[in-house]
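re: ur question from earlier - yeah i can do the single chain one, its not a big deal. heres the input i used so u can compare w yours
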Amino acid sequence: MTVAVVALAAAGCGKSSSDSTSTSESGKYSGKGIGLAYDIGGKGDQSFNDAAYSGFQKADTEFKIGGRDVEPSDNETDADKVQRLEQLAKSGYNPIIGVGFVYAPAVKEVSAKYPKITFGIIDDNSITSKNVADMVFHEEQSSYLAGVAAAKATKKNHVGFIGGVDIPLIHKFEAGFIQGAQSVNPKIKIEKQYLTQTPQEGGFSSPDKGENAANGQIDSGADVIYAAAGLSGQGVIKAAAEHKIWAIGVDSDQYKQDALAKYKDYILGSALKNVGGAVYDLTKSVVNGKPLTGEVRGDLKSGGVGFADSNPKYQAMKDVVTAVDKAKQDIIDGKVTVKTQ
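and the output i got, formated as C-alpha cells:
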C-alpha cells in the first residue's frame, strides 16, 4: 500500500546546494548534472518541492552526475524563470526540470533555444516539443483515497478540504477527495476553501493562511482536514495537531518530515504524488541516452500516486485501511473512475 517517496529539505533566486561536473560511470553522459528549478515555496516546504528534491538526490547518488537546484524569488515574472532556465542551459545542465506548471512559458521558450538538452516540467502537459517531458499525475486518484480515509476516520461525519490556489490543478484534488468521502457516506458534510485566487498571492507559500483556514473549518465542526496547498499545508497540519484532530498531508509523506515531527501523531496519512520518481526517471533516461519525451503521467497503477500509511495509528485503524485498500484496487481495476472537477 505504501508508495515510497523520500523527501528532505532547505531555501533567493539562484541559490544552489550542489554544483559539479561529471560523467556517469556508463560513459554515455557528459553533461554538468541535473538542473532543478523550484516552484513557489521553494525547498523546505516538506511537500511538493521537497518531493522533487528527493528525486534530485536519488539520481545524484545513483548516477554520480551532480547538479544544481535553484530557488524562486518573491514576486518573480516569467522573464525571471526564463533567465533561470537559460543560465542552467548555458552551464550545460541536462536534464533541466521546472518544478510546477508556472514554468510552462519558460520551459517552452528555453527548450526551443536548446534542442539538444532535455527539459522536464512537473504538472503541465501543454508543451509538445521533442525535447520536453511533460510529467503529470492523476492527483484525483490519490485524493479519492484521502477522501475515503477521511470519511472512515471522522467521528462527526464532517471533514474539510483546503486548496492552496483556486486553479484547475487543485480542483482535481478537491474533486477526488469529495468523491472518495461521499463513496463512504453520501451525506457527509464537507468544508471547502481556497486560500488565494492566484499563486502570486501566496496560496502555496503561506503557512499562516493555511492555519487560519484550518482553524475556521475546525470551528465549523470538521475533524479531518485534507490540504493541497504546498508550504501552506504546514499551517493546516499545525492547527489540526493543536486541536487534536486529523490532518491529511499531500505530495510527500508528511508524517516522515522532520520539520513536522512534533505534529506527526495527527497526520492520518498523505495523498502522495511521486514527483521525486518523475525527476529520477527523467534523469535516468537522459543518462542512459534515451530521454523521455511527451506526456508521462503517473497513476495508482504505476505507483505515480498513492496514499502513505506510515502512521502506526493509521495502520491500527483496520476498517480505514481496508476501505482505502479496496478503493485503491477498485480504481486500478477500473471499477471506479475518479472525477477531475
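DSSP finds ten helices and twelve strands in the chain. not sure if urs matches, ping me
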